[in-house]
UniProtKB/TrEMBL annotation:
NADP(+) binds at G166, R167, S168, I232. Pathway: One-carbon metabolism; tetrahydrofolate interconversion. HAMAP family: THF_DHG_CYH. GO terms for cellular component: cytosol. It catalyses: (6R)-5,10-methenyltetrahydrofolate + H2O = (6R)-10-formyltetrahydrofolate + H(+); (6R)-5,10-methylene-5,6,7,8-tetrahydrofolate + NADP(+) = (6R)-5,10-methenyltetrahydrofolate + NADPH. Coiled coil: none annotated. This is Bifunctional protein FolD. The gene is folD. Residues 6-121 form the Tetrahydrofolate dehydrogenase/cyclohydrolase catalytic domain. GO terms for molecular function: methenyltetrahydrofolate cyclohydrolase activity; methylenetetrahydrofolate dehydrogenase (NADP+) activity. Keywords: Amino-acid biosynthesis, Histidine biosynthesis, Hydrolase, Methionine biosynthesis, Multifunctional enzyme, NADP, One-carbon metabolism, Oxidoreductase, Purine biosynthesis.
Length: 296
């Protein structure tokens, strides 16, 4: 391996430490405890793990965590009523509705019912518009975590060629907006992109957010490029024993690491940064709600 490993786990720990410092100051100087409400509908096992982890880390940095677990058959009206209650609760500064929602619920309708000022996931249409027009917004946590790691590694990203593979509303598109905001020349690739390998080979920065295990091989990577692997894919790992599995990213780690200048591992890269950014966004929302200077 020649690439520098971008250690998202360690970086996330420093972000959480800063968040804990801001939370302590908010309590001491203003008597305010930031609060994050997480709403989970149904029993999707991966979502349950994420929600548990978010709740635990929220409490660890000194904030209040409010978990609302609703059963899979919850009606849209009941979910909207809960969101309305949370929108009007002054102890709640951030609201996150864990996605995906069960099929009978309209995700867009539900997300757009959240008060944009409390939309710490940054998925509300107002925040999407603000981000797209370069205005102050709530920035989606996963792309924000990627951007923080890129800035930390490179300093300025100005003029770099960036390729984002994936155009979802939660990762690919906001990632592209953030890179554009940092003056990269941005290409968004997707399932219909022709000659993906050639497109990726031009990139100084590759962000892979596809959801296909080890899809990007090392020979697509320009020597010295930075690879940010957002993908989290569980695959069989017979070498670990019968029925065992392991997590891999969207990039083939060993071959990419042999060519890249820097790379994030999976696990331990983008994943931990996502939750750290959620906590940071909650502090930001709390400061804005109380007219206080927000952390940088
Ligand atoms: P989506 O399924 O919503 O989007 C996947 C994107 O990849 C689509 O735009 C799709 O293109 C594109 N795509 C699919 N196949 C190909 C292909 N063969 N070549 C090029 N592009 C392709 O996924 P998400 O954005 O929600 O998530 C992507 C990955 O990131 C997943 O593995 C997910 O688990 C992970 N993730 C990780 C997070 C973290 O905290 N680390 C947080 C969120 C997601 P098209 O639009 O044309 O269909």
């Amino acid at each position: 391996m020649t690439a520098t490993l971008i250690d998202g786990k360690a970086f996330a720990a420093t972000v959480r430490e800063k968040v804990a410092g801001h939370v302590a100051r908010l309590k001491e100087e203003h008597g305010i405890t930031p609060g994050l409400a997480v709403v989970l509908v149904g029993e999707d096992p991966a979502s349950q793990v994420y929600v548990r982890s978010k709740g635990k880390q929220t409490v660890e940095v000194g904030m209040n965590s409010y978990e609302h677990k609703l059963d899979a058959g919850t009606s849209e009206a009941d979910l909207l009523a809960l969101i309305d209650t949370l929108n009007n609760d002054p102890a709640v500064h951030g609201i996150l509705v864990q996605l995906p929602l069960p099929k009978h619920l309209d995700e867009d309708l539900v997300i757009n019912a959240i008060d944009p000022a409390k939309d710490v996931d940054g998925f509300h249409i107002s925040n999407v518009g603000l981000l797209g027009t370069g205005q102050k917004s709530m920035v989606p946590c996963t792309p924000l975590g990627c951007l923080m790691m890129l800035r930390d590694h490179h300093g300025s990203l100005s003029g770099m060629d960036a390729v984002v593979i994936g155009r979802s509303n939660i990762v690919g598109k906001p990632m592209a907006q953030l890179l554009l905001g940092d003056s990269c020349t941005v290409t968004i690739a997707h399932s219909r992109t022709k000659d993906l390998a050639d497109v990726v080979r031009r990139a100084d920065i590759v962000v892979a957010a596809v959801g296909r295990p080890e899809m990007v091989p090392g020979d697509w990577i320009k020597p010295g490029a930075t690879v940010i692997d957002v993908g989290i894919n569980r695959i069989d790992a017979p070498e670990k024993g019968e029925g065992k599995t392991r997590l891999v990213g969207d990039c083939h780690f060993d071959s990419c690491a042999a060519v890249a200048g820097a790379i994030t591992p999976v696990p331990g890269g983008v994943g931990p940064m996502t939750i750290a950014c959620l906590l940071a966004n909650t502090v930001t929302a709390c400061c804005r709600a109380n007219g206080l200077t927000e952390p940088e």
